[in-house]
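Tokens as discussed.
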């Protein structure tokens, strides 16, 4: 599946932080990770730190799949609000999922500190806007529910919003646990540390076959070399592994622009993350070099050519919507791109084993929180690989 269209901002901004070779020989390892995006990088770093012999394979260059297309808003909130998620998966699991996402945002901040590179990371607040007057009461109930379970959230009415921002909205949820990051640089820094810990990383290496059996897996590649592993982890971004049920996820096309650097952020001084209750929703954030990233205009995915033909039209709409939301912000679009993302019915990822895949594990971060889901997957799957029970694995099981 072709995930990208246009020119994603991150590789352009960062250049090539590191180069990895294609696989040129047969290798043996404890864990083979398929996918060298940010989720695969988080897994490689965690598993290598646990002392496991890790090989990472990717058919593209490192971090140029969905990681390069990510707009990288780090939030504990998923697209399904807590009150709705409780109805879908039960109150206890819904609250725990939200708690794990809070921990994931905090964990990413700690990781960046350990890496010794800011990776474009900064801690931010988020503002979840009521798109319609009728959404205000629901957001107030949502805040009451979250705070009752110790989750960070404040209800802001129209007056409080207008006192702080040049935004007109009937209500909002304000949250102080959020952040932003350069996902391309973050993935490269994690892979560099994983390599220092003994992981072997090969890109431009396509899989041609995977044989699952009781003693492990045998992975054939396009370069006629074989990887034999005790376990395989599929960390394919938004691509659905062909043997899995294709109804696990619905695919959508999303569009984004990044502006030229902005001189003054009038009416948006703190550059908090912004999104809204409308579906599909508009979302925006700033960057460390003074730009604005705006995304949205989602629609069901049909094929890459149709998606990419719409980039110019969708980019113009995003620029107009940004101007309406923050009229004091004078922005000139610099780059535009499109990506394909997957969405599960409950907004949560699929993490863990699946029937019919002996010694296979999955880290499929479907939804709008791919990076934070990757952090959760790294913790759960590292536990499973070293034989430590993980109570949270049940929440994200593929059979749910």
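Sequence:
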């Amino acid at each position: 599946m072709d995930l990208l269209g246009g020119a994603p901002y991150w590789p352009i901004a960062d250049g090539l932080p590191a180069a990895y070779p294609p696989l040129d020989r047969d290798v043996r390892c404890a864990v083979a990770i398929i996918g060298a995006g940010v989720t695969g990088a988080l897994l490689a770093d965690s598993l290598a730190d646990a002392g496991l012999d890790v090989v990472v394979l990717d058919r593209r260059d490192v971090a140029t799949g969905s990681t390069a297309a990510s707009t990288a808003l780090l939030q504990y909130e998923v697209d399904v609000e807590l009150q709705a998620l409780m109805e879908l998966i039960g109150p206890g699991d819904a609250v725990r999922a939200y708690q794990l996402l809070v921990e994931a945002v905090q964990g990413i901040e700690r990781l960046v500190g350990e890496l010794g590179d800011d990776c474009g990371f900064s801690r931010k607040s988020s503002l979840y806007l009521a798109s319609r007057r009728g959404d205000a009461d629901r957001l107030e109930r949502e805040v009451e529910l979250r705070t009752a379970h110790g989750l960070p959230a404040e209800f802001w009415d129209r007056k409080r919003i207008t006192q702080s921002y040049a935004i007109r909205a009937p209500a909002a949820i304000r949250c102080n646990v959020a952040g932003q990051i350069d996902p391309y640089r973050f993935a490269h820094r994690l892979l560099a540390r994983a390599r220092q810990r003994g992981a072997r990383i090969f890109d431009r290496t396509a899989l041609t076959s995977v044989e699952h059996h009781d003693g492990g897996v045998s992975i054939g590649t396009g370069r006629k070399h074989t990887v034999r592993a005790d376990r395989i982890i599929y960390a394919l971004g938004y691509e659905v592994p062909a043997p899995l049920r294709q109804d696990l996820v619905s695919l959508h096309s999303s569009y984004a622009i990044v502006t030229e650097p902005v001189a003054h952020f009038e009416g948006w001084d703190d550059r908090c993350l912004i999104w809204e209750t409308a579906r599909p929703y508009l979302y925006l954030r700033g960057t460390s070099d003074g730009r604005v990233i705006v995304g949205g205009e989602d629609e069901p995915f049909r094929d890459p050519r149709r998606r990419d033909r719409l980039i110019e039209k969708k980019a113009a709409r995003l620029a107009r919507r940004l101007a309406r939301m923050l009229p004091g912000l004078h922005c000139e679009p610099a780059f535009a791109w499109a990506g394909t993302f997957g969405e599960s019915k409950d907004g949560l990822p699929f993490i863990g084993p699946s029937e019919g895949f002996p010694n296979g594990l999955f880290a499929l971060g479907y939804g709008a929180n791919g990076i934070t889901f990757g952090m959760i997957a790294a913790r759960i799957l590292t536990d499973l690989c070293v034989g430590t029970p993980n109570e949270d694995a049940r929440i994200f099981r593929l059979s749910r």
